[in-house]
Amino acid sequence: MSLPESATETQPDQELAELPAPRRPWRRTTLLVLLLGSIGSLFLAMSVLPDVAYSLRGGEPVALGELGNNRRLDRGLANRWVQGEGELSTTKAIRYKRPLERDSYRLAELADNPRVWVQVRVPENEEGPRFVPPASFVGRLVPVSELSLRQRGLPDAVEKAGLEPPPADAWLLVDGESPKGQRWALGLLALLLAFSAFNVVGLLRLGRAIAAVPGRAS
Fold first, then answer.
1. CA distance 94 to 112
2. By the 8 A CB rule, do 193 and 45 touch?
3. Which residues contact 209 (CB under 8 A, 6 or more apart)?
4. How far apart are CA 15 and CA 196, in angstroms?
5. Which helix (H) or strand (E) holds 201?
6. What three-state secondary structure class fits 153?
7. Cα–Cα distance measured from residue 55 to residue 190, given in angstroms and rounded to the nearest whole number
8. HEC per residue, 101-137
9. Which pLDDT score is estimated for 119?
10. What pLDDT digit, counting tens, does each position of 133-183 carry?
């Protein structure tokens, strides 16, 4: 006696049910990559938060006047747009370039204040004896202990050049770096957060899909 056609269609195939679950050798690797991608993106997003905060500042730069004579700066000036004056040292200074940029940069200590260093941009056609260092600066003021990603390696570069690096309580004035010029940090922050969220969603969806497979292999 044969079973009805409808009963035959719903009967599970015993041989198929007894087959071992397919191996997924890259499952754990994929989950780990997604997790690390999310954590890494959040870490980078946190590192650009000072740039984002600076880019949102408005108004005019804070006038500091003369920065020399061993003047100590107030902690409240950290990550502010400022204007100051001073004479750059000709001996305690280094020159460096950045990839994909034709201009160079000079990082110099103030002649009479080792706690204030200034980074100035030198146009390509003005480098050399023709360059006259400015005596007035308008830019971003940050403690050396809280440098952004773009300036974090400068103290090491000073030391490698054979000079005494800036002390821990020193400040860096990045001449020419205005809040409006840092608006790129907003886009970078949004991109990093979106990438982190994408990895989290992928991690959750993949984890649920694996959990839903009966007899899954580890």
1. 17
2. yes
3. none
4. 43
5. helix 184-211
6. coil
7. 14
8. CCCEEEEEEECCEEEEEEEEEECHHHCCCCCCCCCEE
9. 95
10. 889 999 999 999 988 888 888 999 999 999 999 988 999 999 999 999 899
Longest dimension (CA), the chain: 108
Which are the contacts of 53, defined by CB distance < 8 A and separation ≥ 6?
79
| Total residues belonging to the chain | 218
Which of 84, 88, 87, 110 is CA-nearest to residue 166? 110
> Which candidate, 47, 41, 45, places its Cα nearest to that of 201?
41
SS3 215: coil
Structure tokens at 20: 């071992």
CB atoms within 10 A of CB 34: 20
Tokens (6 digits) for 215? 């007899």
Beta bridge partners of 141: 80, 173
Average pLDDT over the chain reads 85
Residue 6 has pLDDT above 60, yes or no: no
pLDDT, tens only, 36-74: 999 999 999 998 999 999 999 888 999 999 998 888 899
Q: Could you give the CA distance from residue 30 to residue 25 in angstroms, rounded to a whole number?
A: 10
DSSP letters for 13-70: -HHHHHSPPPP-TTHHHHHHHHHHHHHHHHHHHHHTHHHHHHHT--SPPEEEEE--TT
Residue with tokens 């490698």: 160
Nearest Cα residue to 147 out of 125, 127, 168: 168
For residue 99, what are its two tokens?
A: 């990839």
